[in-house]
Design a protein that fits this description.
- The protein has helices at residues 2-7, 9-36, 55-59, 66-89, 93-126, 138-164, 166-195; strands spanning 42-44, 134-136.
- By secondary structure, the protein is mainly alpha-helical.
- The chain has a two-stranded parallel ribbon with strand order 1-2.
- Helix 2 runs antiparallel to helix 4 (66-89), helix 4 runs antiparallel to helix 5 (93-126) and helix 5 crosses helix 7 (166-195).
């Protein structure tokens, strides 16, 4: 994977942009499925989207999100700067492979969650295998996300140690960081929930 990412910086940036756009639109599709299908059996407290910056756009199901566009442009600009400094000036190609691998593999990890939600919605729609209703507290949704991301980070870490290269190591690191962030957000949400006084 390192060789492919380093072959042409523009290919790497195009791949990351495509994966990011796919992630955003799959999130919108998942939010639509939640409103029309998943919500009959599963309730999530708070927004369907876990990243605070994009929650308002996803909740409104905006196909055109200025926040998302700005984030993608800023990330591409930052990665182009990393490529120029690390690869062209310093000859440290591993840094660029690490960063690009981290961005792409973390996003692909989230794609697995999207595909699972889509599959679950299809089974619910067909009336197969699902009955009753369950509600997830916000802190639990974030904690489960953290566990999933940390598990993927462990898998990528093992693959990196087995010779997967700097890109896979980046995937491990980026999933680890996001998993720890969601764990911290889960702790915060749990503390907030504990301080809420039930209505009399």
């Amino acid at each position: 994977m390192d060789t492919w990412l380093l072959a042409n910086a523009w290919y790497s940036l195009a791949a990351w942009t495509a994966v990011a756009i796919s992630d955003y639109f799959l999130t919108l599709y998942g939010a639509q499925l939640y409103q029309t299908t998943l919500g009959y059996h599963v309730t999530f407290q708070g927004s369907y989207e876990l990243t605070p910056m994009f929650q308002a756009d996803v909740d409104a199901r905006r196909r055109w999100s200025p926040r998302f566009v700005r984030a993608v442009i800023a990330t591409n600009a930052a990665m182009l700067a990393v490529w120029f400094i690390a690869v062209v000036l310093l000859g440290m190609s591993a840094v660029f492979a690490f960063m690009m691998g981290g961005l792409i593999l973390r996003s692909l990890s989230i794609h697995l969650r999207h595909l699972r939600n889509i599959a679950l919605a299809r089974f619910i729609r067909s009336g197969e295998g699902v009955s009753g209703k369950v509600e997830y507290a916000r802190w639990l949704t974030l904690r489960l996300s953290a566990v999933e991301l940390l598990s993927v980070a462990g898998l990528f870490g093992l693959l990196a140690l087995a010779g997967g290269g700097w890109a896979v190591f980046g995937g491990a690191a980026f999933n680890l960081i996001t998993g720890l962030q969601h764990w911290a957000m889960s702790d915060q949400a749990r503390r907030r929930a504990a301080t809420v006084v039930p209505a009399a």
